[in-house]
TrEMBL record:
InterPro entries recorded: 4Fe4S_Fe-S-bd, 4Fe4S_Fe_S_CS
Protein's name in the database: Energy-converting hydrogenase B subunit L EhbL
Native source organism of the sequence: Methanobacterium bryantii
A Pfam family matched in the record: Fer4_7
Domain 4Fe-4S ferredoxin-type residues, every copy: 42-71, 85-114
Amino acid sequence: MKNLGIIFLEGVYSNVKRILFASDRVTDMELRNKILNGEIVPTDKVAEVPCIGCSGCKNVCPTGAIEMVSLEEPVEVIEGIIKKEKPELNTLKCVHCYHCHDFCPLYALFGEAGTIHPNDVGDVNPDIKELLEKPVKISEDKIAYISKFLSDNAVIRKREDQNSK
Ligand code: SF4
Ligand code: SF4
């Protein structure tokens, strides 16, 4: 067995090497400095403007990583749909299951990119008024399943109104 004193000295030596000469570092110095200087801006997880505030993402998240926060002023998205809250995603609790995106009604009902994404929501900027007037092309069973997660079912009700005309 290796002498304990030698193991200890080897440990001290490699730590001194890491501290003084930055050896064994996985992150390069330029990136480390940017992180330390606050120059790395986290990517947006929510596209706040087109989000309709339905809470579907929060209700479907298995880890409680999404919290709905009140808007200072409610926004009328379209007639009959008032947005009062927006989601905030806590990356520390996220397990990247993508349920939030996949159950977002913009994606699930209309096939457009959802307004929340665990990595980077990107540039999601549909014409929300036009989109919500579009017919939904998925089965009644699927609509019923998705609607269980939407706190505000106004999108679904609107569609039913359109069908009954
Ligand atoms: S991807 Fe993350 S935030 Fe979205 S539902 Fe899954 S755990 Fe929740
Ligand atoms: S499910 Fe989509 S539209 Fe609904 S609150 Fe979440 S991000 Fe916004």
